[in-house]
Amino acid sequence: MKTPFFTGAAAIIKKDLRAEFRARELVSVMGLFALLSVLVFSFALELDREAREEAVSGVLWVTLIFASMLGLNRGMALECDQGGLDAMLAAPVSRSAIYLGKLLGNFIFTAIVGMVMLPLMTVLYGKNLLDAWVIGTTVIGVFGFATIGTLLATMTVQTRAREALLPIAMLPIVLPFLLTAVRATTGLLNGALDGEWRGSLGMLAGITVIYFVICLLLYRYVVEE
Amino acid sequence: MPEASVIIEVERLSKVYGSLPALRGINFSVRRGEFVVLLGANGSGKSTLLRLLSGLGKPTAGLIRVGGWEMPGEAMAVRAQIGLITHQPLLYENLTARENLDFYGALYGMSGAEREGRIQELLRELGLLKRADSLARTFSRGMKQRLSIARATLHQPDVLLLDEPYSGLDQAAAEMLDAMLAAAKREGRTIIMSTHQLTRIPKAAERALVLSRGKISFDDAIGRRDMSVIYRSASA
After folding, report:
1. A11, B54: Cβ pair inside 8 Å?
2. Confidence band, pLDDT 50/70/90 cuts, at residue B97
3. Which of A97, A107, B191, B196 falls between 20 and 30 A from A28, CA-CA?
């Protein structure tokens, strides 16, 4: 009677990846924004090489957050405008499965942008971001943003001022997350003592798990009247 | 005890949005295989009623039972029995007709082989087989509505809910929809269709429910009645 949890989630991921692979409506916009943002910061900090190297992790995460918000807004708007969200909710599939499917799609799109940013920033900012730990931190951080972003985008897409409301709702919530991500990345890039960046990375992973569980449980209350 | 042939039971159903009542304690039941047309002016509560019946909203008060399953507690079982068609086709523009149906089939828990056979059958029946691998965004409004019917009937639901399905359809597409609804009726599906256009009541429809300001003001067989007279007096 009820569609199995992972069957429902897998169908949604497959649908999102297929539609995006064909239309490239999200990754191209997010990628272009990230590229321009990284270039603008690079030019703005051109004269002060030291400041540029110091700012690299901040630039990475702020750009990723804003790029991810662009993608979340656009993705949920497409879903809602075509009636897809209603059609999914009318199916006998768990709301948590819908959340997981949408979350993994959003995560994959933002992670692609993040993986393109790392080599680009390595060239522009003169810091090696192609380190396995930096890549791992980026993946964890992007997943964390996607957990809360997917929930909030579903809430805000049903309002009139959805483009403006997502950043207003999301930024205060992700602030502690952002600070932890920046601290972990800065520690890694500056070769800080193991204990320091490992602590921040552990905290980032911990917050991600907490956000994921909370959002998974709350999603049904967000989509149901 | 409800009659054995009753598939939908609605008791004292109310829905309030903020301080605005959309439905005010309505009661009705629908027999299995019956075709009910839901009439009413804009804002009379038709779409709200269909949203509640399809499990897309929760009632403020009252009870809905479909096929013996009660909402909202057994909403999953209810949703599995319902096919929903709205004036929006609920299709993904960047997926092909076949991919759209495959996605919805998976959401309704159909196996790969089951989906493949049923999709092929529906595309053939609805005259979309040649365009099966074309993107939905290249379809005309009428073709999208046909694909939407395929989407809604893919999982062989017992109940079809249609919310203003004729909106934006040209004469040929509307006639095709009439034929499809007649076929669904012959197959024994229960149909509830909302419309505010009296000229769009299909010949297969047997019973009319008129909603006025969130209440049922008329509920009887259509027969040879002049619906325009009933509609005017019931909506007044």
Report:
1. no
2. very high
3. A97
Of B90, B93, B108, the CB nearest to A3: B108
Domain count, chain B: 1
Euclidean distance between CA atoms A37 and A62, whole angstroms? 9
Q: Under a CB-based contact definition with an 8 Å cutoff, are residues B147 and B133 in contact?
A: no
Tell me the average pLDDT of chain A: 91
User: Could you tell me if residue B132 is inside a domain?
Assistant: yes
Helix H, strand E, coil C: the string for A60-128 is HHHHHHHHHHHHHHHHHHHHHHCCHHHHHHCCCCCHHHHHHHHHHHHHHHHHHHHHHHHHHHHHHHCCC
CA distance B17 to chain A (A): 10
In DSSP terms, B220 is beta-bridged to B208
The predicted pLDDT at position B236 comes to: 65
- Residue B82 falls inside a structural domain: no
Mark yes or no for CB contact B82/A225 under 8 Å: no
Instruction: Quickly count helices (H) and strands (E) in chain A.
Output: 8, 0
Contacts of B210 (CB under 8 A, 6+ apart): B39, B40, B216, B217, B218, B219, B230, B231, B234, B235
**Rounded Cα–Cα distance for residues A52 and A122 (Å):** 12
Q: Bridge-partner residues for B162, per DSSP? A: B85, B193
In sequence order, what are the beta bridge partners of A15?
Answer: none
Q: Quick check: is B52 in a domain?
A: no
Whole-model pTM: value is 0.91
- For residue A17, list chain B residues with Cβ-Cβ distance below 8 A: none
Q: Is residue B135 part of a domain?
A: yes
**Digit-coded pLDDT (tens) for A148-178:** 999 999 999 888 888 889 999 999 999 988 9
Confidence of residue B1 (pLDDT cuts 50, 70, 90): very low
Domain boundaries, position B135: 92-156
Q: Do A92 and B76 touch (CB under 8 A)?
A: yes
> Is the ipTM, as predicted for this complex, more than 0.85?
yes
What is residue A193's predicted lDDT score, i.e. its pLDDT?
A: 62
> How do residues B132-189 score in pLDDT, each as one tens digit?
999 999 999 889 988 999 999 999 999 999 999 888 788 888 888 888 889 899 999 9
Q: Shortest CB distance from A92 goes to which of B56, B80, B99? A: B80
A3–B109 C-beta distance less than 8 A: yes
Cβ-based neighbour number of residue A37 at 10 Å: 17
